[in-house]
Amino acid sequence: MNESKRITPRTLKGFRDYLPEAMLARERLIDTARQVFRSFGFVPIDTPALEYLEILSGKGGEESDKQLYKFQDHGGRWVGLRFDLTVPLARFAAQHLTKLGLPIKRYHIATVWRGENTQRGRFREFMQCDFDAIGVHSTAADAEIVLVINDLLTALGFQEFTIRLNNRLILSGLLERLGLADKATTVLRVLDKLGKVGAEEVESLLVSEAGASASQAAEIKHFAQLAGENESLLHEAEPLVGRSAAGAEGIKKLSELLSALLDGAGLPPERLKIDFSIARGLDYYTGSVFETYLDRLPDIGSVCSGGRYDSLAGLFTSEELPGVGASLGVDRLLAAMEELHLLEKPTATAPVFIPFFEKDRLQDYLRLAAALRRSGIGVELYPEPVRLDKQLKYADRRGFRLALIIGEKEFQTAQCQVKDLKTRGRTEVALDAGYSALISAIKQVLAC
Amino acid sequence: MNESKRITPRTLKGFRDYLPEAMLARERLIDTARQVFRSFGFVPIDTPALEYLEILSGKGGEESDKQLYKFQDHGGRWVGLRFDLTVPLARFAAQHLTKLGLPIKRYHIATVWRGENTQRGRFREFMQCDFDAIGVHSTAADAEIVLVINDLLTALGFQEFTIRLNNRLILSGLLERLGLADKATTVLRVLDKLGKVGAEEVESLLVSEAGASASQAAEIKHFAQLAGENESLLHEAEPLVGRSAAGAEGIKKLSELLSALLDGAGLPPERLKIDFSIARGLDYYTGSVFETYLDRLPDIGSVCSGGRYDSLAGLFTSEELPGVGASLGVDRLLAAMEELHLLEKPTATAPVFIPFFEKDRLQDYLRLAAALRRSGIGVELYPEPVRLDKQLKYADRRGFRLALIIGEKEFQTAQCQVKDLKTRGRTEVALDAGYSALISAIKQVLAC
């Protein structure tokens, strides 16, 4: 190849390669998430990356339209890359409702694309991991979504985290009482910024952007900042919002949800915290809303958020599809796991390494490796008969647990040196016909 | 929502939704593949769906250029959706070589897009599942790729399949002897069609397209159709190709590979068959080539193909990167598993179903479900307190193994009806404080 014709290997800004270490972490996170989803009976679905543009831009506001990767395909159709998994779910549910029936409890783990400004540290391609129960009214479904979040974070190794709960109806009750019901969308969007910009800024934005009076803004700020035990918060909120039907219903639902989670499922009380400032920006939510914070890393924001909605797919079907769901922040969680040292470092995917350094003994090495794999032990055989020290360096870099060193002498005396790459200890094990002594020696080490 | 504003929910031609049943099958296939890859020490990577157009179209011929989904992004850059995982691997290897070192043994399971004519029953979006060892010269690596194919198909439940092997150098030797070396690319492309169009058609295409004489075409046809025991085929080929250095090397390498697989790793001899017609269309292959056929479904074509190449990434780096790899046909395998009844039908992802039909008992149902999950038993609690018969119909449709029927009477007497949805049998089990009797009863059924 002519040097001048060579192309510089590079990726687009905002796009990432996953090297083995990062990819293994992502695979482990996704495997864990899937196991937890399945333990609650959720089923997986997938939808195309490309959809008709009218489907994708039908619901999104101007902001998501600007971020959409869109183009005309070979047939001149306007198409776009999905920017979230909610719009595809709405389209999917409307399209397959008759076949699937209700309820639908699905999870969807897939890539989405947004042509965002990468200066904010955002990626243009990232994974989303959503789970929803659709066609459900009962608090049982809300409780289950929160339980999934709890089990998932626990399974990933997090011990200290807080799920913050609220109900949109409580905020509606407050706004009704304040005579601000018609400005609810803007108020909630402003309130959603509280964690980022602080209470003072929210108060002044409520005036300048949502058109609230100074005293209205002060009341909303006060309400959003109420703090204390869950029980006393409910009591405190009651007189402030309870005279409106929505407000009273919100208090009742939130109280029911807490009982289901604490008295029913037995969640540790310190994990659940009522927080009346949780609004979630989207107008789409109508009931429970929740966010999840890692106590040791509060600044990274919510790692799993969601809520209840009345109508998932009004754009695509006349069928009422109420539901509740949440979305796991895969990138945030991986970053948090890295920071809290919850990620396994080795990139070895098999526990045992066999260096291949007697080039005329390939058949013998392959015979041993096959026997170990048949007994359930993963084995990497080095694919090239190079110098042993080079191979052992490779093994150290990858983080194998054991290396089986077998040179010509060992083959002839039917012995194998088992090297523990963690403790640096060495033992000699006989190579009998079925390798049974070696297999049990290895299993004994791996079981520790 | 105004009826007239509603958007018809639909997917683009050539694109598919995966409903739960299909998605579960895909997840199981991919999980199995990953387990096998890992048991050989392969590690996962991922690359972006979108790449600079020059990277994607640099290597592909005109055909893949036409099929490329390409467009200008928000910054006016020409970009495209990846159409295979080979070009991204080449770019990835060149870009990260220094960091990763050699050898690189990676697997990559990801979606690719091609704007193909869907009339041929092809999809425009599909998954590829590739595995390669890069930076390796030894036959050990070729053998390992074939062993992965064998273990993978076995793990998926296939029992009768044949891996057909050849070496490009043998065909080079033949063409050298016939004085057709300069037409090798076209000859191999024609030969690759043998399975589809038949030997007579190949013979005439060799004349009309590759410019072979009638007697040259006849010799190639004869050679490609040689059949018999592997040993005798090697002997038969020897005089026909062995006088050229390439041909002799090809025979030697193929013979070495067979010994490694049979005498070393102990593959059943009937699984491996030399087939001199295996050419693989791409000019890229330079050594071993292989294809895999299901004996009971030969017509679906090869379900896993690959081979050895001298230079993976010449377009992106001056580093020589020889390697060997293969690609699993995910769609073909899923279709075959469906046809051979190797797919599990139930879409229940948890074994136990709990109907929720006493609406004031949500906390009790949640307590039980949480206890079962803590003991490792997956449980789906129906999310809505509707009529029991409706819930049991749902459970039947989903294919749960057990249903735990607990109404007001059962709660009061601390009893639970365990219904085996397979045998239709019912037993009564006491609900003690820790549910220990129930947990062991369930585990006993699930262990069967």
Walkthrough of the structure:
2 copies of one chain form a homodimer. Chain A is an alpha+beta fold and 448 residues long. The first copy, chain A, has 2 domains: 20-339, 2-Layer Sandwich (BirA Bifunctional Protein, domain 2), CATH 3.30.930; 352-447, Anticodon-binding domain (Rossmann fold). Helix content of chain A is 43%, strand content 19%. Chain A has 17 helices and 16 strands. Chain A has helices at residues 20-39, 53-57, 62-67, 86-100, 139-156, 168-178, 184-191, 194-197, 199-208, 214-224, 230-241, 245-264, 330-339, 362-374, 388-398, 408-413, 436-447, and strands spanning 43-44, 50-52, 70-72, 78-81, 104-113, 125-134, 161-167, 272-274, 285-294, 304-309, 323-328, 352-354, 379-381, 402-405, 415-420, 426-430. In chain A, the strands form 3 sheets. Chain A has an 8-stranded mixed beta sheet with strand order 1-5-6-11-10-9-7-8. A 5-stranded mixed beta sheet of chain A has the order 13-12-14-15-16. In chain A, a hairpin with a 5-residue loop joins β15 (415-420) and β16. In chain A, α1 (20-39) packs antiparallel against α5, α6 packs antiparallel against α12 and α9 runs antiparallel to α10 (214-224). The longest helix of chain A has 20 residues, at 20-39. At the A-B interface, α1, β1, β2, α4 and β5 of A face α1, β1, β2, β3 and α4 of B.
